[in-house]
Amino acid sequence: MEIPILTTDRLVLRPFVLEDVEELAVVHSEESFWWYPLRAGMTMDQTVGFLVRTIERYESDGFGIEAVIDKATGAMIGWAGLAVPHFLPQILPAVEVGWRLSGPYRGRGLATEAGAAALRWGFTTAGLDRVVSIYEPENVASGKVMEHLGLEPYLTATHPERGETMIVTQISAARWRARQDNG
Asked: Looking at domain 6-181, what is its CATH homologous superfamily?
């Protein structure tokens, strides 16, 4: 399956390429960008590894998060999209909708906008039956985005390596369609 280019009113979500590493490293270096779960920003080496894995998963998984570009400025402001949550094997098989945005772009509805575009593609083009999203309970902002997108609590899990409690939410294709029909 080809990784799509998705557009919204304010954003473009496009597949990452290796040439994105410098711009991505700036965003990844923000401590707040990676507060959940790392509690620290990423180094350049960590960002390179992240980017290589992401691009490889486009092929191996058929899904992968994408660069989020601000239409107004052309700047990369983070990433969002659908990906297989390999880090939480107890819920596999699954596809997760997720997002991370640079500090100045939070609180403006952009995560919801990006997440909605990813869900639309997942349920209409990719033919998914269900999508999950995962967050730490202290990450109230991400939990609110999931609520806005119609995801509902599914189970509580523990991160197998870090030991953190994680809330797994989900939305079915049928529920997503019903929400679209009801505006």
From this structure: Gcn5-related N-acetyltransferase (GNAT) (3.40.630.30)
